[in-house]
Amino acid sequence: MKFNIDPRLSRLVRLTLSAPFALFFVVLIRVIRPVFLVRIGVMRSDRIGHFALETELWLLEQESGVASRPKRSVDIWFAPEPIANRVLHKMWKQVLT
Description:
The protein is of the alpha+beta class. It contains three helices and two strands, in the order H-E-H-E-H.
């Protein structure tokens, strides 16, 4: 049995339910920032060229020390849908974690 729900209503419900969680994580990150830096990044995954090149350039900058990150920090990456290449996505997950 499938219900026909208005997409606007569905989106409003999702935003209403996810807002408290997002607010909690934003406050948590801001509180621990003086001690530990948390950086969140979005990979451009809808185009394979951007997905491969921009991520590789970031990794090379980290290795060479051009854009070194602070000692007490962690980088969290995510790739929003649509993902252009699932195999490349799986590889980046292995490399970046």
